[in-house]
Amino acid sequence: MTPPSAEAATLGAAPAIDRRPPSFAVGPIAWLRANLFSSWLSTAVTLALAYVLVSWTLSFVNWAVVNAIWDVPGTGQQVDTSACRAARGEGACWALIGEKYRFILFGLYPFDEQWRPALVVVIFVGLYAISAMRRFWRKELAIIWLAALSVIGVLMWGGIFGLPFVEQERWGGLVITLILATFGIAFAFPLSILVALGRRQTSMPAVKALCVVYIELIRGVPLISLLFMASVMFPLFLPEGMNIDKLLRAQIAIILFAAAYLAEVVRGGLQAIPKGQYEAADALGLTYWQKTGLIILPQALKISIPPLVNTFIGMFKDTSLVLIIGIFDLLNTAKTSIIEPAWQGFGVEAYLFVAAIYFVFCFAMSKYSQDLERELDKGRRR
Amino acid sequence: MQTPTATDPRFLRAPPRRGFALSWRDPTVRAIFWQVVILGLVGLGIWWLVENTMRNLEVRKIATGFGFLDREAGLPIGESLIPYSPADTYFRALTVGVLNTLRVAIIGAVLATILGAIIGIARLSKNWLVAKCAAVYVEVLRDLPLLLQLLFWYALLQGLPGPRQALNPFGSVYLSNRGIKFPWIEWQEAHSAALIALILGAIATWGLSRLFTARQMATGVRPRLWPWAIVLLVGLPLGVWWAMGAPFTVDRPVLRGFNFRGGGTITPEFAALLFGLVLYTAAFVAEIVRAGILAVHQGQWEAAAALGLPRGLQLRLVILPQALRVIIPPMTSQYLNITKNSSLAVAIGYQDIVSIANTTINQTGQAIEGIAIIMLVYLTISLTISLFMNWYNARIALKER
């Protein structure tokens, strides 16, 4: 509160007494009035919505916590899930997660070696965290990525440093999802920059046409058709005796798919650069690649970082489509975990478990993208 | 513009002529060189792939070509918009698939637009609880893979009791793991005729509305439209239906043995796919609608109010036309997405074009042709939606000079 002003004192008026504003103007009651009960209609909507929310929450808590079955006798083939069956509809069967979480997270990776994919997950998360920090946005980041991806390869395959070799067919779960998304972006991003630059080459109509056809063709068809192509047509494309495993084929399809979408994002950034920047670079006598690498791309990529993160979130979610061609990603291991007769019918629990994992990753990225947008916008708003 | 004077040195000599020199310093030569190199490399790559494919096909003795389309398909299809039996050809089976894709995409696009608009507006509500609920909906649904959501809804629908213990929320509507059963009128020729009359009536009403707008422009008085609309939209179809004998029999689903007989059906596959697609896409549509409304300047509301327009007309005549300019382009890509995402149907067993083409590939071994058909269908649909939305966008775009 400010002290009574000197002016009032000199005018001879009695000093104003500090009084609290009425409770209907400030404070929680005023807030409730303004935001929840401002009119009859608003009050009715609030009450109806509150009723629905409370009753849903109560029944969900009943299902997921109060009536839930957390443990069942027996393991493996001798498991007895009759308790879960009895509680069907009234209580969740979290015993499924307790029994199967290792399989859902790591697939068929040898049980004793599962610390390796777990470590890989930690490395991936660390890699994302480092890439998210603006102080690491330097050339060294490329080296960090290269190093991390090689360590991941060594850990997953093994065969050296005393790690037993694990063939790729046994990989599965969260690691596959992270590998497909991360390697996808690592290779699609440079490719997308080239394609986006190619699409803006007015002096090279043939190159431009090539890039336009590539982008529009890929964006016009669903990812599934590309994955089908990868799974049934790639073997026909290659000469006899040359064989690529299924995961790599799916990875190539995802890279080609993501590159087309990323290219459009990068093109948006390129278009936002004023023409004067190009002309200034030309006036300095820079060659095309100097101009692009030193003047244009640093500015264009900065503008397109938030939509790039959004595209990456989309890609992270889209990796789940490899389920359809039979690759054991996180979603497919969840789907497979309920195939055994004992666990059949508990799909809701398994899917909620992996939904939580997907949500943590995507929500973190989406919050980061929103913050970054605000952060990068500061310079322009000033 | 300045008039050139003899003293201006720029006009004393002609600008240098751009000659063509066969030299590395000439940008045109460099451009041609690089284009030849890049096209050559791409061509070489494609030639290599085609060559390999030809040899592989020869080794595996797979005949290429679309001749298989005329052969008997022998694949059963659960739901179809046109008459179909397994004895029909592959071509007809694939047509059924395309129609199924279009069915779920069109219904999904309409529902997602409505739900998305409601949630987008709700997120801007002054009521804190409504705004927060809409925000949570958008954040949660956007951050989960669509395929996961589809599998979740499908698992939920499969978890419903069997037909004998079917849930019966109201009337003759039954929910079971065989789908949703509801009463439906027995469809006869009179109903088709009435439907056609309704469509004709709608077209006539639209034409009248344009005519009346033109008259309003000319005379300042707008003739009343609603009596005409009632006659054309209600009277005409009812008249046709009545003239053809007014048939009306309700076909109710009845439990016979282990399953229901009669009535209309929504299969669990279709319900799960539609539900998942609509809820997922609505989250994106909501964000687009919200951004579109926020993009309209507050002053527009105030100016419209100053003209004496009531709140509803402010929104309809002033705000919405401007918001639509921001909303339409991203909505186009959402409609494209819902069409492409409907291909996930293959994971839960709804027989769309991808699912049927996939079965065709497995039965005939014609992988290249099958995938070419899938891609062609989606490219055609994508192109049609793009063209239509571009036309619509051009129509509502800001008319500048």
What does the model show?
The complex is a heterodimer of chains A (382) and B (401). Chain A has helices at residues 6-10, 27-35, 40-66, 82-86, 95-106, 115-132, 140-157, 174-199, 205-220, 223-237, 246-271, 275-283, 288-318, 330-337, 347-381. Chain A is mainly α. Chain A has a single domain (95-381), classed as MetI-like fold, CATH 1.10.3720. In chain A, helix 14 packs antiparallel against helix 15. Chain A is flat, with a radius of gyration of 29 Å. The mean pLDDT of chain A is 83. With 401 residues, chain B is mostly helical. Among the domains of chain B are: 77-156 and 271-352 and 376-401, MetI-like (MetI-like fold), CATH 1.10.3720; 191-244. Chain B is built from 12 helices and 7 strands. Chain B has helices at residues 27-60, 90-123, 128-142, 146-158, 189-219, 226-243, 268-295, 298-306, 311-341, 345-348, 353-364, 367-396, and strands spanning 174-176, 179-182, 184-185, 250-251, 254-256, 259-261, 264-266. A 3-stranded antiparallel beta sheet of chain B has the order 1-2-7. In chain B, strands 3-4 form a two-stranded antiparallel sheet. In chain B, strand 5 and strand 6 (259-261) form a beta hairpin. In chain B, helix 2 (90-123) packs antiparallel against helix 11, helix 5 runs antiparallel to helix 6 (226-243) and helix 9 runs antiparallel to helix 12. The longest helix of chain B is centred in the N-terminal third of the chain and has 34 residues, at 27-60. The radius of gyration of chain B is 30 Å and the shape is extended. The mean pLDDT of chain B is 84. The interface between A and B is large, with 56 and 55 residues.
